[in-house]
Amino acid sequence: DTAVSQTPKYLVTQMGNDKSIKCEQNLGHDTMYWYKQDSKKFLKIMFSYNNKELIINETVPNRFSPKSPDKAHLNLHINSLELGDSAVYFCASRHEMREQYFGPGTRLTVT
Amino acid sequence: QKEVEQDPGPLSVPEGAIVSLNCTYSNSAFQYFMWYRQYSRKGPELLMYTYSSGNKEDGRFTAQVDKSSKYISLFIRDSQPSDSATYLCAFERDSNTGKLIFGQGTTLQVKP
Fold first, then answer.
1. What are phi and psi of B89, to 5 degrees?
2. Do the Cβ atoms of B102 and A43 come within 8 Å?
3. pLDDT digits over B34-81, tens only?
4. How many CA atoms does the CB half-sphere of B32 hold within 13 Å?
5. In the structure, how many helices (H) and strands (E) does chain B have?
6. Other beta carbons within 10 Å of A46
7. Is A89 in the B-facing interface, judged by CB distances under 8 Å?
8. Among partner residues B44, B96, B104, which is closest to A102 by beta-carbon distance?
9. Please, are residues A76 and A40 in contact by the beta-carbon 8 Å criterion?
10. For chain A (length 111 residues), average pLDDT per consecutive 10?
11. Cα distance from A86 to chain B (closest Cα, Å)?
């Protein structure tokens, strides 16, 4: 059983396009996160939702907009994609004050 | 000064060697200290978690925290080829939000 899943796994798109990445967790966790990992493996938090409420909103371009329709899902929509958005995006989830479980990642390439 | 410093390596060792991975940090407010392991093209997975100075052991892995020096280490004994991965130190200041600050990661290769 997949605990934290992301779709798609790979996304290749052109500059200026709008794209979405979806995340689902079946662990019953109440907090979900989006991270960005750059080409040097540096992993940085972007957003977090707790029970559909935004609790972490790091300094990211407002072209990035997270949406949480329910506590099992957290989506990331990116408008007007730029070359610098190329990275691996990870979703993670956590229950109360315990460890975070990461998804397999979505590898985004902007050409 | 960066909040977290971690030597990216790469680090290459022979099978059976003892591996030492290190991170330094500058934020005294960090309360929780973690090590994540990330295999190629996979998501990070939690390896070790501690919140106090001292050592914590789990099998071949030992996590060490020195809050006074703002320094954490991960030791791997009897390293195996299956330990080849990127190791990320991570720090948490506020357990309510779970916001993690990661080091850059050290890539380790264990050669048979």
1. -85, 150
2. yes
3. 999 999 999 999 999 998 889 999 999 999 999 999 999 999 999 999
4. 20
5. 0, 11
6. 18
7. no
8. B44
9. no
10. 90 98 95 95 93 89 94 96 97 87 97 97
11. 15
Enumerate residues 58 to 87 of chain A having a beta carbon within 8 A of any beta carbon in chain B.
none
Tens digits of residue pLDDT in B82-104? 999 999 999 998 878 889 999 99
The beta-carbon neighbor of A102 closest among B43, B98, B104 is B43
Residues 6+ apart with CB under 8 A from A95: A27, A28, A29, A30, A31
Would strands A87-94 and A106-110 be described as parallel, antiparallel, or unpaired? antiparallel
d(CA A64, CA A79): 7
Residue of A29, A32, A43 to mutate for B, most B C-beta atoms under 10 A: A43
